Amino acid sequence: MALHDRISDPPTDFFTDNKSPDSVHIWNPQITSFIATQVAKHRPMVLVTSGGTIVPLEKNTVRFLDNFSAGTRGACSAEHFIRNGYAVIFLHRQFSLLPYSRHYSHSTHCFLDFMDLEDDGAGGLRTVILAQYEEEMRSVLKEYKRAKQENSLLVVSFITVTEYLFLLRDIAQCMAPLGSNALLYLAAAVSDFHLPPDKMSLHKIQSHGGRRLVLDLEPVPKFLRKLVEHWAPQAMIVSFKLETEERLLIPKCRAALKSYGHQLVIGNLLDRRKYEVILVQQDSERWIRVSDGELEDILVPEVIERHKRWAVKMKSSI
Amino acid sequence: MALHDRISDPPTDFFTDNKSPDSVHIWNPQITSFIATQVAKHRPMVLVTSGGTIVPLEKNTVRFLDNFSAGTRGACSAEHFIRNGYAVIFLHRQFSLLPYSRHYSHSTHCFLDFMDLEDDGAGGLRTVILAQYEEEMRSVLKEYKRAKQENSLLVVSFITVTEYLFLLRDIAQCMAPLGSNALLYLAAAVSDFHLPPDKMSLHKIQSHGGRRLVLDLEPVPKFLRKLVEHWAPQAMIVSFKLETEERLLIPKCRAALKSYGHQLVIGNLLDRRKYEVILVQQDSERWIRVSDGELEDILVPEVIERHKRWAVKMKSSI
């Protein structure tokens, strides 16, 4: 396989038409320092992207277009990567689920229900975890604390699709020196359409007199090709494909592989995404199905196995 | 003031064109029973709506239109109403902030950071709340437990604007027998536009070949008029108006009061919403401003004061 040198990013409409968001400059030092630490430890590293990306309809944003995603796949996968010795940059949509705390947020049970007040032996009360939840809480907390101690997780957040794309480019370029030890696991639900800044209303779009609202959205540039060719050409790249029609799933996964020339597409159907996914590569297709437990418990080790093979192949081709 | 009898809901396009969502039938028994309990206790009651309302673009929803709202105003106000002796039905967008747990979610600090593992004295570890966070955690937990014990909070969730409108109608009609003891505090950010079911794609809208996406959205019916005239005609109704342009704020609040004939509009500007609001009534305008602390600490007692005056006025006019 031919390797592309890391070349400077060619000018494109999206990255020139849109102003680089402040968040890129704010996060960059933390990202750079996190990566340097991991390189020193010879850890494999994965960028996990997670959650939906919003498309604001106004500059002072009241309304926006969004993509369905609570961020479960990403948050859960991040924990499994860490458990398997990876350092994780978790690039997630603000307020979507986070590794570890996900066990207690977006839940039908409020986490306050896991607590009680008991006599502190000095005439007062103290907060305690109810006995029946203690074990699970302790196990989550242990993993969370270990990830912090070992500095194996960096959480970076975005809101809009523009922020997402700029941060993705920045992180991928920062990770490029890791070569094939870098894995990009792109589980975020990225909008296919956006409203360019020059078409965006400055203020809240007014509704009056029963008027309709007509939105004319432009396609979001296909960034995967750039990732493969320019931003992190030696990294293994895994993208996700969510469909609602079964007949389209495998053809769409194959089409993505063909268009972008990356290594793996994980396909899933909206209503069965928690129980089955398909791993589509150039020369193979493999379903993973679970009836209970977390699908990521099987999926992440499978992806890691493929990343190892990719790294061996890339190193032997140098 | 003329009182409208509770009359049956007139046929309207929205409520006949859209199928009543399952959630209405699922929630109805809990809502009815909660209201009956409060009536027996002679408690004043408020419906607090909170969070954004989504407009799905597909029936198998991958993409949707949304309104900016984390649900802070609603969740915070609900706590203040309960503290002031009200029973609260909290109708909120799924995963938006909830009363009490809001202190620990959507936060820059993960709530797991408030905990630690300590020796349990028997060779193991147990989970404890860190001393520096104990007092605040205990105070939130106390209030949460009291609200549960006194059965003063019912949490109902919705996702789409259609679910929101059907649930609002159902809850308002269930509350109508409370007469002027009922308060409707409509803090949810309701979409002004929606896509009727017959215009909605069944499956995920496909993006290919760099095609644009043109959306033609219809106005959401102005439900406030129905609330005032038909659903809960004796209840005091408070609506919110969020604008991004200062010059539009008061005129838009006045226009809403005039159009719908309800009692109070609370206006706020997107970038100053945490620090100032304006209470606009037929014959008065009053700004509330805070430099620190929660604005709802002043706002909610002000609204309650007006609700009391409204109830006296309504009772004396019978």
TrEMBL record, chains A, B:
GO biological process: coenzyme A biosynthetic process
Gene3D superfamilies reported in the protein's UniProt record: CoaB-like (3.40.50.10300)
A single MF term (Gene Ontology): ligase activity
Keywords: Ligase
Pfam families: DFP
Residue ranges of every copy of the DNA/pantothenate metabolism flavoprotein C-terminal domain listed in the record: 174-274
Keyword Phosphoprotein carried by entry: no
Alphabetical list of PANTHER family matching this protein: CORNICHON-RELATED
Family per similarity comment: Belongs to the PPC synthetase family.
The name this protein goes by in its record: Phosphopantothenate--cysteine ligase CAB2
Organism: Neolecta irregularis (strain DAH-3)
